[in-house]
Model the fold of this input.
Amino acid sequence: MDEGWWSIRINTTRKYFLFNSTQYVNWFWLENIPTTSENASVSPNQAGWSRIYNYTIDIHDQEGDTINCSLFIKRNSTDTWEYVGSYIITGTPGTPTQGTCYVTYHGFSCADMGINEFKWLIQDKEASNDYYTQVYQGPNLTEVQATITLAAGNNSIVDRNAGVVPLIVNVYDIENQSYAPNVNVSFYVTHDNTNYQLDILNSTLGNGNATYNFAPDCSYTTGVQYWLAGITDSCYVDTNTTTNFTTTIIGWMNLALITPAGEEYLRGEQNVTIRANITSD
Done:
């Protein structure tokens, strides 16, 4: 029954008596007891921003009303409350309504890192009973944990005059369980067969791959060079490949014949001196 003032009408009849009908207007108030809520939480309470987050709150309504729970969040990057979803617990009049409202949310970004906030709007059949819960803190969003692994380019061979070899790694978001796009990856290569240098910073594509089209020049010595790659992105935990990979650089030897240069020599009487100049690329 609806909350509010209720009137009573009483009709009386009896043989040999006049009919009587009496109305008592707004004779009593019927109160709809508000829904109670408790144990609001978000899980996980702290993790990387790319995860799915589960929000819950326990509900009890003494009168068996159907309850609607609406979730609002305020990102660390804004000062605005944002509706992100709702859940309905169906009640049966006369039987207390008890259950848990839950909403999953998968829409945070790197900009939201830090402590975020949330609250619930609890509604039963009476608009006057609607209320917002207190503001709760959470989740605390952090950098995302990811792995970086070899995709191509290990044990490769490349000509330092005109060759190109793709060095490719893959970044996988282990919190969201998906390949991670737009992640900054640094590629480090030895130039002297020993000491690593930062060669280039590239971003991953939609499939999680970052590619360095390695085209060495004469600043790289020939022979086996080593390379590795690492995530260097403020939105992700910095981590490197666990193995040092290799690429072998091939150089060129240029031969220039100096003598003889077309002269005639007497066989058996003159020595022929062959002189040449060899330079590397």
Summary: The CA atoms of residues 255 and 278 lie 5 Å apart.
